Each structure stands twice: as C-alpha cells, then as structure tokens.
From TrEMBL:
Top enzyme class: transferase
PANTHER family in the cross-refs: CATECHOL O-METHYLTRANSFERASE 1-RELATED
Species of origin: Knufia obscura
Gene3D superfamilies in the record: Vaccinia Virus protein VP39
Family membership noted in the UniProt record: Belongs to the class I-like SAM-binding methyltransferase superfamily. Cation-dependent O-methyltransferase family.
EC number(s) per entry: 2.1.1.6
Segments forming a coiled coil: none
InterPro entries: SAM-dependent_MTases_sf, SAM_O-MeTrfase
Entry keyword set: Catecholamine metabolism, Methyltransferase, S-adenosyl-L-methionine, Transferase
Annotated protein name in UniProt: catechol O-methyltransferase
Length: 148
C-alpha cells in the first residue's frame, strides 16, 4: 500500500497536485470512488494538448469530489502558460447535483489555489448549462466532459 498522504493544510495550500494525490490515495487504498482515473486524465490531456487553439473554457457535467475538475483546471492553466510563466484566463465549470459534493469541490479548489479558475455550479446539469449563458455570459465552450 502506498504511504498515507500528508494532510497538513500548509502542504496542500496552492498545491493542486498534492490535493489530487490525496483523492487518488482514497480511491486506490481506502474506498473505491467513482472518479475518472489518472490514466484516463493523462490520455485526455494528450488529446487536448493537440487542439489548436488550446482550450480555455471546459465544462464538466458531474463533479463528485473534484478530482477531474482540479485536473482540468491545472491542465488548462498549463496550456495557456506563456514562456514568462503568465497564464491567460481559463475557466472550468464543474456542474454537480449534490450540495455536499459541491462544498467539497469548492473547499478543495480553494485550498489548491484554483478557485479563480474552477467554478462549481450546484444543481442539475440541464439547469446549470442554461445558467452558464444567462448568468455567466458564456457563449462558447471549448470542451464538454460528460461524467454523470
Ligand atoms: C462519476 S461522478 C463524477 C466524477 C468526477 N468527474 C471525477 O472524475 O472526479 C458523477 C457525479 O455526477 C453527479 N450527478 C449525477 N446526476 C447529475 C445531474 N443531473 N446534474 C449534475 N450532476 C449530476 C453525481 O452526484 C456525481 O457526483
């Protein structure tokens, strides 16, 4: 079994990779969680990296505890980073039905320093998709990830 992760919040702050490692630890060693695996995320990253222009807005339907949402936010930031290390604006909208999961994703995004990039929308995806245009002014989505 892999060694237990470091839960010290000071080690997790602004460190999405450490937060994602904790989720993976629970998935692999404690409880089977219904998440998109790191292997699939890595494969998807290779596909998205080939898009031209690189994606800036990603919407996922089904956030659960935020593993894929944190991964998408990190990926999109990486794609848009220039040689000086500056990142142009990217946005991930994670739509989640269950209020408790919404709180978990928001908490993880905050600790990881991704709350400016990752926005969680509470409610059914159908309603949230309508709100995306009406309330957030989003007219264009580059990537749609369906994972209910
Ligand atoms: C497979 S999990 C998502 C896993 C997540 N994408 C990941 O890989 O880390 C599916 C999630 O979809 C949510 N869900 C189910 N029906 C939904 C709906 N109609 N609208 C929004 N979320 C929904 C569930 O509550 C659950 O948290």
């Amino acid at each position: 079994m892999a060694p237990p992760p470091n839960y010290d919040q000071s080690k997790l702050r602004n460190n999405p990779k450490a937060m994602m490692d904790i989720i993976d630890y629970h998935v692999n060693n404690i409880q089977r969680l219904m998440i998109f695996s790191q292997r699939k995320l890595d494969a998807t990253e290779k596909v998205l990296a080939k898009l031209d222009p690189k994606p800036k807005v990603l919407v996922e339907l089904g956030g659960y505890v935020g593993k894929s949402a944190l991964a998408w936010a990190t990926m999109l930031q990486k794609f848009q980073q220039n040689s000086q290390g500056n990142v142009s604006e990217v946005k991930v909208f994670s739509m989640e039905l269950e209020p408790d999961f919404v709180k978990i994703i928001r908490g993880f995004a905050d600790i990881s320093g991704l709350s400016g990039t990752l926005e969680v929308m509470e409610g059914g995806s159908g309603d949230s998709l309508k709100r995306l245009k009406a309330e957030k002014g989003i007219e264009h989505i580059d990537v749609l990830f369906l994972d209910h």
